């Protein structure tokens, strides 16, 4: 059994749709949990006017009855409240009004290549789907995966580690309780002093008509060892996680564990030595690998880091070319955010949660959530037996 997640919809269209297939029956869900994750995606200092309009809620249209999954595909819809302001321009059907095309692609966005690839003349036909607004549907689907993982004792969290030139230093080991108040920070940073500096950085660059990127980190606690496999390249969990996180709009780099930093270390300082005791079984005193070895989880906390580029929509547009006349022009200027790294961390949680939930489904199967939990318990007992 494998999980599938499909999203549909445009940034200013009627709404976004998410379909998740493969969750077992009997999983209890609460609407406030889905809506809480959607609200967290809208957090963060540096967001633009769109967040004042949208108040995202997930409406269930299939697969759940009385708060319990039925075993079939689950369909969720997230309405775009801003659609009322775009109804004629984004109507699914022809309208009487004369809708002006957009011909000014933005550097760093899908605009130009999308029009070339799909033989389109209107940049809006590309940018509406390419927009990061699509991630609201992913977060809705990821919330279902998180609910499933909680039944397995797995929790997925995130925090921001860099915005622009401002970095934070992570003191290891971080535990799950260290993340309890991360959303209270306006930039979702664990260090209050660095958080304030990040806010100042965003404000300073916004006054200069600039956008900012940064880095965030996603961690998963409570995983069993052995998710993924070493025997087939497309099933290695490293690759699946990298694919999922790199698919988030504006993400340009993904690292697992210490990632690129390991390239500059000697082998003796790059790997996690293995120990054994009668109380703990096999264990490691470090986690440089980020909870992954040979394409499989080790049982240590999973650590995935991602780098996000500055957003390509600027209040002072970059130089571009009109795709109709080929004349030099300024790029399209849309309502935009200055910085969405805090929100990207929440999207990262959703994507990591979905990959991990899929790994549990593939390893443990089960038509009902009780079947899955029983299989995980039996596996844990086998692993414990082998350590004695």
Polypeptide structure, described:
Helix content is about 30%, strand content about 20%. It is an alpha+beta fold and about 400 residues long. The chain has a single domain (about 5-385), classed as Chorismate synthase, AroC fold, CATH 3.60.150. The strands form six sheets. The protein has a five-stranded antiparallel beta sheet with strand order 8-7-9-15-10. It has a four-stranded antiparallel beta sheet with strand order 1-2-6-3. The protein has a two-stranded antiparallel sheet with strand order 4-5. It starts with a strand and ends with a helix.
Brief rundown of the structure:
With 388 residues, the chain is of the alpha+beta class.
- Calculate the mean pLDDT score and round it: 94
Helix/strand-derived class?
alpha+beta
Number of helices: 10
How many domains would you count in the coordinates?
A: 1
Low-confidence stretches: none
Which CATH class? Alpha Beta
Instruction: State the end-to-end distance.
Output: 32 Å
CATH topology descriptor: Chorismate synthase, AroC fold
Largest sheet: 5 strands, antiparallel
Measured by DSSP, the beta-strand proportion falls in 15-25%
Strand order in the largest sheet: 8-7-9-15-10
Q: What name goes with the CATH superfamily?
A: Chorismate synthase AroC
Helix and strand succession? EEHHEEEEHHHHEEHEHEEEEEEEEHH
- Fraction in helix: 25-40%
Q: What's the total count of β strands?
A: 17
Rg over CA atoms: 22 Å
Report the principal-axis shape.
globular
CATH architecture: 4-Layer Sandwich
